[in-house]
Amino acid sequence: MASRLVEQLGAQNIVGASAAELSDHIRAVILDGRMTVGERLPSERALAFELRRSRSTVTRAYDLLEADGYVSRLHGGGTRVALPNARVPPTAPEDDTAIDLSIASMDSTPGLYDATVRSLPRLAALRGTSGYSLQGLPELRDAVAQRFAQRGLPTSADEIIITSGALNALNLILTAIGRRGERALVEQPTFPHAMESLHLHGYRVVPTPVDVDGWDAAHLMEVLLRARPQQHFHEVGGAPAVDVDGWDAAHLMEVLLRARPHVAYLIPDFHNPTGATLPEEVRDRITATARNAGTHLIVDETTAELDIDRGRSPAPLGAFGPHVITLGSMSKIAWGGMRLGWIRAERKLISRLLAVRPSFELGTALLEQCIAVELLADMPALTSHVRARLLAGRDAVSEGLAGMGGLTMPATPGGLSAWVDLGAPVSTRLALAAREHGLIVPPGPRFTTGGVLERRLRIPITLTPERTAEAMSRLRAAWESLQAGASVPDRALQQTAVI
């Protein structure tokens, strides 16, 4: 079995790497947070064996890391991950001029100020209450339920809990139903902090691939017919056909049936980071297969409203089965500062969540809830603003990448980002080089379970066109320096959250 370090590096990405290149890759894994401070690394002999390299190469790589403060080595204690003591704290910004592409989030909607003003009488009316709101304000839960109904999923207010964001909602669910040591199915790539939450709750993560290139339809149809035959297929030339954009649905359902994971975490609409949308024809089968496997299906809909020109609106995954647990959030459609989300689930699970929640929080801030009521009352204006901003951001990214030979931007009909193909496994090296040009961008492996997808880079389409143009200019400079054979920078990098 491969060590965790090699899993995160992706052995195929460092074939033939020099000692300096190997140390750079390990440093990137550490600064991405994929290896934790204090975690023990393989011995020089063991790592050399795993990588099929000479021990002297590995020793030299560890020497370089130790000299820069990224590992500590004690006789008899092995080699452990460290951070340079003389550097700035890893969460502090490097400088005021850096552009941070690890955050895929827009600034606030123009309607936020007016909504805040309108919300104040509602907040004032609550002064006579305790101020605690364990399940959420009834009027907000009703507004969220109505939004589900408008999208094709009838919902009542008592099937909703208001939370302090979607990640908070995920942790509440895992606290209530989690089982340490069980398997959790996740897409690869996926939202990094969701994987971290699953690991925190003791799950063993099992990946299933998602991309923007489509998959083997014949294989998919075989599994679909075996899992739940003869429903919701479109007939083309006498044979069933189905859109398989993004997901390898055959693999996903095989994993559900074979591994029977306890939970599955999916992002079916404008998937983060690829932007893909799970076809409606497949949603029914995945939902049914998860139910048959005894898997709790946790669906992240934080990106579901980020449509530019998709041309269709698939029914929510929850419309195909009452057992589906759905997460939502205001942060992507209104503002990241609105730390407010929700859970939609069966009433039985809602009761269980309410019983667990007081162990770590007593509800969601009332001001944010009052503002959210006002914002949800005018969803057309909100979604119109989102569409215009994302369209401008997408155009700016496309224009910025146009002259960068070797990079391919896929169709991006919505979502937070473009999942750019670099044409070669150089994502980590490009991310490192970008720091020298004042650009913070997480490499493709940051979104994976095992150091793969070095050909990919997530570029947000959420910044203003002016800010995006400057970011693309810096990325171009980094790309050109990499193409020219410049060495990877040898200095501390900022460890950032990926949003």
In CATH's first tier, which class of the largest domain applies? Alpha Beta
Summed up, the helix count is 16
What is the CATH third-level topology name of the largest domain?
Answer: Aspartate Aminotransferase, domain 2
Number of discrete domains: 3
CATH level-two architecture of the largest domain: 3-Layer(aba) Sandwich
Structural class determined from secondary elements: alpha/beta
Query: How would the global form be characterised?
Result: globular
Distance between the termini: 32 Å
Major sheet characteristics: 7 strands, mixed
Proportion in β-strands: 5-15%
Radius of gyration: 23 Å
Question: Which secondary structure elements does this structure contain, and how are they paired or packed?
Answer:
Blueprint: H1 4-9, H2 19-31, E1 40-41, H3 44-51, H4 55-67, E2 71-74, E3 78-81, E4 99-100, H5 112-124, H6 138-150, E5 160-163, H7 166-177, E6 183-188, H8 192-200, E7 204-209, H9 217-227, E8 234-236, E9 239-241, H10 249-259, E10 263-266, H11 280-293, E11 296-300, E12 325-329, E13 341-344, H12 347-356, H13 366-376, H14 379-401, E14 417-421, H15 427-435, E15 439-440, E16 456-460, H16 465-483
Parallel strand pairs: 4-15, 6-7, 6-10, 10-11, 11-12
Antiparallel strand pairs: 1-3, 2-3, 5-13, 8-9, 12-13, 14-16
Helix pairs in contact: 2-4, 3-4, 5-13, 6-13, 7-8, 9-10, 10-11, 14-16, 15-16
